[in-house]
Amino acid sequence: MVGNEDGNGLERHDPLRQLFLDGGEARTVLRGERLHLAGEPSAYVHLLVKGWVGRSRSTEAGDAAFTAVHIGGDIVGADGLVNERVDDDLFTLSGGVIRKLPADVVRDAVARDPAVAASLLRLLAAETGFLREALFAVGRLSSGERLATFLLQTFHRLVRAGLLSPDARRFPLPLTQTQLAAVTGVTAVHLNRVLHMLRNVGCVEVGGGFVRIDDMAALKRETHAGPVGPKARAALNGTAESR
């Protein structure tokens, strides 16, 4: 799901993040590990030190939709501190390193330290903003606009997190095509059509676990930050564009 480009809104030396760096249990994770099962009590909160984590919710029929894609530096599952459970599945999209703390330990720190409490408030406000932006995207953006927006925002998030140079035009994206379809809210078949469209208009190419931006200005034109590019509209002419 697309959302704001600021990630979880925490500064790199944020008090909440520092809590995990000082006392969290570090663990190396592999791709495909489940950190939390939807609806279960929230026993731990995680700092993603390195790697990628997905957050998704599924229907009874098994159709999944991503509600977040986390990158290194993100706090994962903080809403469980308030609700005492996380309603989504949390799972690793790549190998990496996490630091986890018991939810009760984090709650105690929030109650004791106003700086940590303020940090949590900023985080939850940022995540609420992310969901509002995602709801707007599903309701008002085309599939091509949603995908272009997600790719551009992921680039900016990696840059702001210090994980990518602003001048870089290639970055990792360890999502399968099925997962990327779940992020943008389309079928895998339609996603393949949109990927071809963005490649054919010279914006961006996605494949092999990486994104290569060929024309940054053109990619921006395909997002909701500006008018949709006429080449993309022409490329999709005659097709039924799923929203």
How would you sum up this structure, described in words?
There is one protein chain. The protein folds into two domains: about 15-135, Jelly Rolls; about 140-235, Orthogonal Bundle (Arc Repressor Mutant, subunit A). By secondary structure, it is of the alpha+beta class. It is built from nine helices and eleven strands. The chain has helices at about 15-25, 80-85, 105-110, 115-140, 145-160, 175-185, 190-200, 215-220, 230-235; strands at about 25-30, 35, 45-50, 55-60, 65-70, 75, 90, 95-100, 170, 205, 210-215.
The largest sheet, given as strand count, sense and whether it forms a barrel, is:
4 strands, antiparallel
| Dominant shape | globular
Tell me the distance between the termini: 13 Å
Strand tally: 11
Helix and strand sequence: HEEEEEEHEEHHHEHHEEHH
The CATH C-level class name of the largest domain:
Mainly Beta
CATH topology of the largest domain: Jelly Rolls
Rounded average pLDDT: 86
Over all CA atoms, what is the radius of gyration? 18 Å
Give unreliable regions as ranges.
1-7, 226-243
Q: Hey, roughly how much beta strand do the residues contain? A: 15-25%
CATH superfamily of the largest domain: Jelly Rolls
Strand order, biggest sheet? 1-8-3-6
Second-tier CATH architecture of the largest domain? Sandwich
Q: Which structural class matches the secondary elements?
A: alpha+beta
The number of domains = 2
Helical segment count: 9
Helix residue percentage: 40-55%
